[in-house]
Design a protein that fits this description.
This protein is an alpha+beta fold. It has helices at 64-79, 117-124, 127-146, 186-209, 219-238, 249-260, 290-299, 305-326, 332-349, 361-379, 385-395; strands at 6-9, 35-36, 46-52, 55-62, 87-92, 104-109, 149-150, 159-164, 167-172, 179-180, 241-244, 263-273, 278-288. The protein binds adenosine-5'-triphosphate and magnesium ion (MG).
Length: 410
């Protein structure tokens, strides 16, 4: 009996013209005008990208069973507010024109401005980059574990990176092996780290074998750093602190340290031992995005954590500048509104159309600030935003590929 092709989509996310795609042909043999090329990581499955309507999607061909499972887990991870590619649909029941069942297809939204690690190594290889990759992976792993997700396949190719004010933020792509168990047993966390460590080493050694890894990168040191930094962040976020119950300011101190690491404490457990008048404090619910939430509240801008930190600093210095030239400090809400209207938006608007997709606006702003700082240092006086921007566009941005939808030949 002929099979019927089934399209299961999140309501409101159905790509237009989806049913017109050549579903009766194996994905690797498609020849269709909607196909677009994107730089991507290595994979066992066939993964191709299509641009439909105004959006780009990644299609991954895999057994229907695997596709169902991955669709479910990706949705669950995303519902927890974690950085992961957005699964929007499943295609099943495919049949080849000449008969015979074809595999299913998992459909995810293409993650704009996402950069595979090989691309990053090809443009800025070296020890600082490997440290940034480790830091980004550590934050993702800790966030997953805090929320009870075991990934089971953390590797450099299964992460996508987005620039974040000079550092990187990692997104999970590929969740075939994930499970949810809250709280996550210690053994599973350890196992996860073992896998991550091995896969990271494998990814870096592959690069080295292809002559793409600078000799200053010590693979062993990088993978050991992964364990070490994971341990530090995990302990800071979840560890028990015991204090003298009369020193309650130490509770604030603990929360502030967690905030400084970019996390909010949503729930705190305190246990009082009257015998020694000791307090045990245990963060019970922590969530990444402390500065990002504050910036969103003040300005409505949606950016990543480090970008938010950077923009908040710039808002604060704009506030100080306004206080100086106007003789009194406007209230914080006014400073934020004026900063958006007088600094941020005019800058973004001045970027010519053809350079827009090169970097996310918040990242561009961060790079502009850096660029202006170096220009000012070299000039010995404060270079203005407009001069800084012109110089940045002509000497830096113009020479960068469009990272919104990256495609570079190998
Ligand atoms: N939604 C997406 N946005 C951007 N890039 C994507 C997306 N989905 C997949 N990719 C790219 O395709 C690559 C392969 O995807 P994925 O890792 O899911 O395939 P896989 O065959 O399951 O991999 P593995 O061999 O690790 O099992 C990724 O490394 C990533 O570069
Ligand atoms: Mg993969």
């Amino acid at each position: 009996m002929a099979r019927t092709v089934q399209f299961r989509f999140l309501a409101g996310h159905e790509p237009s013209n989806l049913i017109d795609l050549p579903w009766s042909v194996p994905l690797e043999h498609w020849d269709h005008p909607a196909l677009v090329r994107r730089t991507r990581g290595q994979s066992r499955h066939v993964v191709r990208f299509v641009h439909l309507g105004t959006k780009t999607f990644a299609l991954k061909e895999m057994s229907e069973h695997e596709a169902h499972k991955e669709y479910g887990v990706l949705r669950q991870i995303r519902a927890a507010g974690l950085p992961v590619v957005e699964a929007v649909g499943l295609v099943t029941g495919r049949e080849a024109a000449e008969g015979g069942a074809l595999d299913g297809v998992l459909v995810t939204r293409f993650l704009d401005y996402s950069l595979p690690f090989r691309y990053l190594f090809s443009i800025e290889g070296g020890a600082p980059l490997s440290h940034k990759l480790v830091d980004a992976a550590v934050v993702l792993l800790v966030r997953l574990h805090v929320d009870g997700f075991y990934w089971g396949d953390c590797s450099l190719s299964n992460l996508l990176f987005r620039r974040d004010a000079g550092s990187l933020m990692a997104y999970l792509v590929d969740a075939e092996t994930s499970q949810h168990r809250n709280p996550l047993p210690e053994g599973m966390r350890e196992h996860e780290l073992e896998i991550a460590r091995e896969n990271f080493a494998g990814g870096l050694l592959d690069l080295a074998a292809q002559g793409m890894l600078s000799s200053e990168v010590e693979v062993l040191e990088v993978v050991n750093m992964l364990l070490e930094r994971y341990g530090l962040l995990w302990d800071e976020l979840t560890g028990v602190t015991e204090i003298d119950a009369r020193e309650k300011h130490l509770i604030d101190q603990r929360i502030r340290r967690i905030n400084d690491m970019g996390f909010d404490v949503d729930e705190l457990v305190m246990e009082h031992d009257p015998a020694g008048d000791r307090l045990r404090i245990i963060p019970a619910l922590v969530e990444e995005g402390h500065h990002a939430r504050e910036l969103r509240r003040m300005t409505g801008l949606e950016v990543q954590e480090n970008q938010a930190r950077r923009l908040l600093n710039d808002i604060a210095s704009y506030g100080a500048y306004l206080a100086r030239v106007e003789g009194r400090a406007p209230p914080p809400a006014v400073v934020a509104a004026r900063w958006i209207a007088e600094v941020y938006e005019p800058m973004v608007a001045q970027v010519p159309e053809d350079l827009r997709g090169r970097l996310e606006p918040a990242e561009l702003f961060h790079e502009l600030l850096e660029h202006r700082y170096y220009l000012s240092e070299a000039a010995g006086y404060e270079v203005g935003n407009d001069t800084g921007l012109r110089s940045y566009l002509d000497s830096v941005l113009r020479f960068r590929p469009s990272e919104q939808a990256l495609f570079l030949e190998d």
